Amino acid sequence: MKNQGGFALLAVMLVLTLLGVVVTEFVFSMRLEASMVRSYKDSLLAGYLAEAAVQQAMREVLGPGDIHALDENGDLVFYRIPAGATQPARLSALPRLRVPLGAGEFTYRITDEESRINVNTATSDRVDRLLAALGLEKRDREIINASIQDWKDPDSLSRLNGAESEDYYLRLPLPYRARNGQIQDVRELLQIRGVTREVYGGGGTTGRPGLVDLTTAVGRDTVNMNTVAVPVLKALGLSNAEISDITQARVRDPYPAVPGRFAGKGFTVGSATFRVEADGLVAGQPRARVVAIVQRRAAVPSAWPGGAGRLTSPASGGIRPSAQRPFSRLVRTPGASSDLGVVILSWREVADPS
Ligand SMILES: [Ca+2]
User: Fold this and answer.
1) Which of 79, 206, 212, 225 is 20–30 Å from 43 (CA)?
2) Is the pTM of this model over 0.85?
3) What are phi and psi of 335, to 5 degrees?
4) Ligand 1 center to 70 CA (angstroms)
């Protein structure tokens, strides 16, 4: 009898232990699932917040400012010459940092895509001067320059110091092919032979800018002298005297027009193409990022679905919410500045920016 009682106790303890293990496992998996759902929800929310930031940036681009310059912090600001005046007046900007919206916040930065060198159209001399302005040695400049040309040209014949699929890219540990066509996004430069993370992203020990800030794959092949950086002016072949002339003159007020001595060099004082880097923040942390390139242009009324004008929007110029794909989205302010619109030229989502 005593033995049987001992056995029963042992069986009960065994069952209880097993039950404990099962319950612990169940609780653990439930918690894991809950945290996965929360993480998914946060990144989804952050994605929409980043999109909202791009919409607000487009609202700024659609505003009346047609002269674009940099403020004391290097942020893009919009100017307009008031009727009857000669000097540009600065327009107030919308908040761009940690703007609360719903359950989160967004932050964005607008930069002038037309303050950059177009890698698709730049001559190799221009690219060489740009790389020299970044402090690169001759040998590195020759490799990068020739490889960019090889990357873009349709043939598969490597030039001296260049690189093509068969002789270089397909032999890498993670092989890929050269595009043999126009560069679609400046991020593609990272795939090109010789372009290191430091050359592309800048910073590092030197604190220099990188190609990401100095080059574009789109734009209009004009350069805004109010926003252009010194390395780009060097790439354009300007003398040091001309460069300090520009950078000193624009400090107080932006150029209202291109001065005669700089005429015919492809300069402007206002831009149409802008890069928007937008972060969606949940609980103070960036959880999603969108990098979009938007271009201000004359809207095509026929592309505009009927009824758009009936949308209620703020008097300052609302953005029409659109169900279309972002790549083909056309936005304009109904009623105000009726012949202007904004087209999204490129849209890249970065899943985990932190
Ligand atoms: Ca090629």
Assistant:
1) 212
2) no
3) 90, -60
4) 38
